[in-house]
Design goal:
alpha/beta, Rossmann fold, seven-stranded mixed sheet, 12 strands, 40% helix
């Protein structure tokens, strides 16, 4: 008789994310063990509890989800989880703090429905934020030329260097663009713009977007007004906006949710999977068929 599927939810926030919990249950998890307020010091004992209570043949029925609102803290938890594993004693792990990986994957896949990612130049606004960094990383991994935009060009340059450390042949450049006027100046030759900024901050005006003659696809990942790309509605899904294919946050969100659920299900197919940005993107491709 198969053991029940147990998912440990690791969250650095004081209260574990209800959103993440509901998605886990809807994905078919039998038992959800929610742990909030976690620090790196808490991880080892919890992981040992997950590994040492079942035999190796049943470890694929236990998994860990690293979530929460703080992506940097989530990355630290993930690193400690990985360091705790040894030999065959391990369980599968999904990292999706703040939905950064699933959101970035959905955005990149939305663009890939319309353009060959290997031949595009993309501008990622707010490219030094948690989602923006992953969008830039995934695009670079698919062969795109990527301009990483930030209010601080130095921060954007640091992100580019970090990505090239992972993807040596990545084609990335750092640009300063903290407002619409600055963003308009770096849109020349850009095929795709993806806005990954914080809620309620406009990064590109409608006029600037219309003036970008090379622009073909625009994706805005902020649904809170004012949206990041003015004139694009949160519900847009491959909508025509001034001759540009437009996606809003809700328009991308349906695919993001499908990827999230598929990733949870994937955890229970083996006990040795680490699902980070690239692995989540690969699952997203399977979801699209």
């Amino acid at each position: 008789m198969a053991k029940p599927k147990i998912l440990l939810q690791f969250d650095p926030d004081p209260q574990p994310s209800v959103f993440d919990s509901v998605v886990a249950i809807d994905s078919g998890v039998d038992q959800l063990l929610r742990h909030g307020g976690l620090t790196v010091a808490d991880v080892r004992g919890l992981v040992y509890g997950a590994m040492f209570t079942r035999g190796p043949e049943d470890l694929h029925q236990t998994a860990i989800f690293v979530g929460g609102s703080n992506v940097a803290a989530g990355e630290e938890l993930l690193a400690e989880v990985r360091q705790t594993f040894f030999g065959p004693m391990r369980v599968s792990v999904l990292m999706d703090a703040n939905g950064a990986n699933t959101t970035a994957a959905a955005a990149v896949l939305a663009v890939g429905k319309h353009l060959d990612l290997k031949s595009i130049t993309a501008l990622v606004l707010a490219g030094t934020g948690p989602v923006g960094q992953r969008v830039a990383r995934l695009l670079a991994g698919q062969g795109s030329t990527v301009r990483v935009a930030s209010r601080s060009q130095a921060k954007a340059q640091a992100v580019c260097e970090a990505i090239v450390g992972r993807i040596p042949d990545g084609r990335l450049s750092a640009v300063a663009a903290g407002n619409s006027d600055e963003a308009e100046k770096v849109l020349d030759g850009v095929d795709v713009v993806i806005a990954a900024g914080a809620a309620g901050i406009e990064l590109l005006s409608a006029a600037a977007r219309r003036n970008a003659t090379s622009l073909k696809v625009a994706v805005d990942l902020n649904a809170v007004p004012p949206v990041g790309l003015a004139g694009i509605k949160p519900t847009d899904k491959a909508a025509d906006r001034d001759g540009i294919i437009a996606y809003g946050a809700i328009g991308v969100g349906g695919l993001k949710m499908k990827i999230h659920k598929r990733a949870i299900q994937q955890l229970f197919e083996a006990n040795d999977q680490i699902l980070d940005a690239e692995e989540v993107l690969a699952l997203g491709k399977e979801v699209l068929g």
